[in-house]
Design a protein that fits this description.
Blueprint lengths: L6 H17 L6 E6 L3 E5 H17 L8 H13 L9 H13 L1 H7 L2 E10 L1 E2 L4 E3 L2 E4 L1 H14 L6 H13 L5 E9 L1 H20 L10 E2 L9 E7 L5 E7 L6 E2 H9 L3 H8 L6 H17 L7 H9 L7 H21 L7 H12 L10 H15 L12 H23 L9 H11 L1
Parallel strand pairs: 4-11
Antiparallel strand pairs: 1-2, 3-7, 3-8, 5-6, 6-7, 9-10
């Protein structure tokens, strides 16, 4: 790392802070502050100046694949700048100390990169025993609890044993309706957590392809309602009489992953898990996982919807638009986003071209041709009504299950094609050109 060219600018910021401390003259417009070894303030202009230096360091040293920029900023201030001076330091002293601290800066940064093991709680999925999928494991609650308690027992000297143990048991028992995805991620504490959550979300996206309609949506704890959650309404009637209405959520049908696993493996689950563990996706793999991700966003969006009640409330004129329409609209738009992730890869792709590509994919290796053109016409008309005309009433006619199945079939077929091409000696499906050839030549 070459930091020499930044030292003079940083010295100016340091000497400004030394003068402020010596004169007890502090700015009112502080944009950044740290008080550790030294007191270090930056006004907005000073902050922008240091931030521009960080930007250059970040880009020139290719740090973006390891560290967030704010992390670099904070480490540069806390480990290099404020440890390079005291109130009596001369310019020469500061420069010498800065050079010495900068020589260790990459070492300081890399000390923050570690392996972190995460247990991510999942609502809506049930596993009977631990499932291992490549580098990812899925634990039932009791196995998760046992592993946490074992860790506590092995490291009891680090805790105030009795008080902490009681707290730990109480917290663990609150999680008994969840299963847990365990994975190990290398990075800083912040980046590893973000990577872990993203990886688990992609895993759940894959699982959603195999979820029956009668099962509720599932997701990372906090992203979906827990199973059997309760909604309480407090209602006063015209006589000012209070009624408390408790409605148990319809979210009571979990996805039994243990029972479904063999079926899922028969439809390329292992292949998708192997793709998920790649360090870098190809162009087509990226588009495939985008399609799976949008599909997952659609199927995990849930609501209680009774079309006859909704229609009455709409016709009464009390509501301009029924709130359930928006959730239905979100589900439909996400389904189309999933579809277009694999159908559109150049400008001005006409609807006829999309229909042709769709039909060719869903009829791959099929003896009888299924023409889905009319289904797509209906799909796009509804999308147009929502996005461009703000007309949502026709959503009452939207056959959610049929259209979700349609997109699911398309993605599953595309995965089959990708798998076949990856195992072919004379075909490839990785680049944009490969995708063009797929639709123009092979299908």
């Amino acid at each position: 790392m070459n930091f020499e060219k930044y030292i003079d600018d940083i010295i100016q910021l340091i000497e400004v802070n030394i003068n402020r401390l010596n004169n007890m003259d502090f700015p009112t417009n502080i944009a950044y502050h740290i008080s550790s070894v030294n007191y270090f303030d930056l006004t907005f202009d000073e902050y922008q100046k240091l931030n521009s230096i960080i930007d250059e360091i970040y880009v020139e040293n290719e740090l973006s694949n390891k560290f967030p920029k704010n992390f670099i900023f904070d480490k540069l201030v806390s480990e290099v700048i404020v440890k390079s001076y005291d109130l009596t330091s001369t310019t020469y002293d500061i420069k010498l100390n800065l050079k010495q601290r900068f020589q260790r800066f990459m070492e300081i940064l890399n000390e923050e990169i570690k392996d972190y093991a995460y247990f991510i709680p999942i609502s809506g999925i049930y596993v009977e025993e631990k499932i291992i999928l490549n580098s990812i494991s899925i634990y039932p609650f009791q196995d998760f609890k046992n592993e946490i308690l074992k860790y506590f027992d092995d490291n009891k000297d680090k805790f105030d044993e009795e008080e902490y143990f009681e707290y730990l048991i109480e917290e663990l028992n609150r999680l008994n309706e969840y299963c847990f995805v365990k994975l190990t991620v290398n990075g800083t504490q912040e980046t590893s957590r973000d990577i872990a959550l993203n990886k688990v979300n992609e895993l759940l996206s894959i699982f959603s392809l195999y979820k029956p309609h009668y099962c509720n949506g599932f997701g990372i704890m906090g992203n979906v309602l827990p199973l059997n959650s309760q909604i309480t309404n407090y209602v006063f009637d015209s006589n000012d009489k209070l009624k408390i209405l408790n409605n148990v959520s319809v979210r009571n049908r979990f996805f039994n992953l243990s029972e479904s696993l063999n079926h899922m493996k028969g439809y390329n689950l292992d292949y998708l898990i192997n793709l998920l563990n790649k360090e870098e996706f190809s162009y087509v793999e990226n588009k495939l996982f985008n399609a799976i991700g949008w599909y997952y966003q659609s199927v995990k969006t849930e609501f209680i919807f009774k079309s006859d009640i909704t229609e009455v409330s709409m016709n009464s004129g009390v509501y301009h638009e029924h709130y359930n329409y928006f959730k239905l609209g979100i589900k439909l738009i996400n389904l189309i986003s999933s579809l277009e992730s694999l159908l559109i890869f150049n400008k001005d792709t006409s609807l006829d071209t999309r229909k042709k590509r769709f039909n060719n994919v869903v009829n791959y290796k099929c003896d009888d041709f299924l023409d889905c053109s009319e289904y797509l016409n209906e799909f796009y008309k509804l999308r147009h009504d929502i996005v461009h005309s703000n007309k949502k009433f026709n959503l009452l006619k939207f056959n959610l299950e049929k259209n979700t199945n349609l997109i699911n079939m398309f993605i599953i077929k595309f995965i089959e094609i990708k798998f076949d091409f990856d195992n072919s000696y004379d075909k490839s499906l990785d680049s944009k050109d490969d995708l063009v050839r797929l639709y123009d030549r092979y299908l």
